[in-house]
């Protein structure tokens, strides 16, 4: 949707108070963040990469909160 045209009909994939994820007829996945009002428009491949990254961060935060220790830089060398 880089050309600024509106997408077609959206199919809701998942929703929560924090976010809503839809897919339009052209295949673009829309990730809407409710609090900020930001919507990311991603290809299916990009969405998969973003999802994996968010899941990794979620796991890191769960480990931090359950272990009570700060995350160290060497815990995940991909964090810059």
Task: Describe what this molecule looks like in 3D.
This protein is an alpha+beta fold. It has one domain. Helices cover 30% and strands 28% of the residues. The protein has one helix and four strands. The chain has a four-stranded antiparallel sheet with strand order 1-2-3-4. Strand 2 and strand 3 form a beta hairpin. It is elongated, with a radius of gyration of 16 Å. The mean pLDDT is 84.
What's this, in brief?
By secondary structure, this protein is of the alpha+beta class.
Estimated share of beta-strand residues? 25-35%
Mean pLDDT: 84
Instruction: Let me know the number of strands.
Output: 4
* Terminal CA distance: 30 Å
Descriptive key words:
28% strand; 80 residues; 4-stranded antiparallel beta sheet; alpha+beta
Secondary structure layout plus pairing:
Elements: E1 10-15, E2 19-24, E3 29-33, E4 38-42, H1 44-67
Antiparallel strand pairs: 1-2, 2-3, 3-4
């Amino acid at each position: 949707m880089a050309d600024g045209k509106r997408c077609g009909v959206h199919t809701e994939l998942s929703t929560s108070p924090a976010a809503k994820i839809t897919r339009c007829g052209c295949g673009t996945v829309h990730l809407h963040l409710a609090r900020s009002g930001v919507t990311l428009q991603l290809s299916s491949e990009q969405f998969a990469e973003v999802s994996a990254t968010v899941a990794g961060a979620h796991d890191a935060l769960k480990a931090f909160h359950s272990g009570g220790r700060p995350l160290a830089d060497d815990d995940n060398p991909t964090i810059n």
